[in-house]
Amino acid sequence: MSDWDDPALMEVLDKAEQLKKEDFRKPVADGKMLGLIFFNPSLRTRISFETAAVHLGAGSSIIQPGQGTWTFETRTGAVMDGNRTEHLKEAVQVISRYVDIIGVRAFAGMEDPEADLEDRLIRDIGKYATVPVINMESAREHPCQALADGLTIRERFANRPQGKKFVLSWAPHPKTLPMAVPHSALEIAARLGMEVTLACPQEMQPDRRVLDQIEEHAGRQGTQLAIENDQAAAFEGADIVYGKSWAGPLVYSDPEAEQKLRTETYADWTINEQKMALTRDAGFMHCLPVRRNVVVSDGVMDGPHAIHIDQAENRLHAQKAVLMKLWNLF
Length: 330
Ligand code: CP
Prior knowledge:
The protein is α/β, with parallel strands linked by helices. The chain has two domains: 31-140, 3-Layer(aba) Sandwich (Rossmann fold); 145-311, Rossmann fold, CATH 3.40.50.1370. Helix content is 42%, strand content 14%. It is built from 13 helices and eleven strands. α2 (44-55) links the parallel β1 and β2. α1 (6-22) crosses α6, α6 packs across α13 (308-326) and α7 packs parallel to α8. Bound molecules: phosphoric acid mono(formamide)ester.
């Protein structure tokens, strides 16, 4: 998302809205090809990109390193005498000769905080590629998810999200999930001009450098980023509650202590109907997949607040718009 300024970003959202209304299916990208590299599993991202390609008349090839394609070495300067077969450098240059866009999913390694924050792997791929690279969730960001989130929020407020209260609420989870989705959700809400609240235990707060960037986006729109350690206080008057689990920064230095915080100390951060009742009839969003009755109760997932299925559908429309923009089709 940082490659596009606010007007360019809004232009993509406008296009996505139009494509959705028209149920756009025309072979405007006939003969084009996507190469989609998945280092990690996916349901929504994979199917929505494949479907978007078909709707535009393009093709797609799924590359899952080690599962039908060679295993990739990703480290620069590695002595490749282990079981990794092909260096990413060659693989990406070769794939670039076959396809018109490369999509990459490469989650945070959760071992080196600076490497994750710098998004080293996807940035290396960007250097090796000779065609545009789309981030399908990297260590630091999930921009395609954020575009779908932006479309969903705009739909909820008749295209006037400015000034509405957006709450990103941390929630418990048994696994150490990365921070890409929360980073990007905060960014899109700020760039839409919403009043953004990050609700999380102190120990789960993302890196200050990321928060500074969100504050910059909010400041440009005349709004603010508030950080609230009291979940109930954050939910008061919310117009959107975006539920998400992530591992706190302690995961890099003391994973056992972090696990205890995430699964025991803050187990009562599960989002439920009582908490949603504090909001201003907020829409409940989640990027999915979600652990029911850990992250969020069945009552919220199946109740009137839930808009997560529309949110998932919007991945298709937003990504169709991204492909069309990168192919200069609007
Ligand atoms: N939200 C999301 O990216 O879903 P998948 O991991 O299933 O692609």
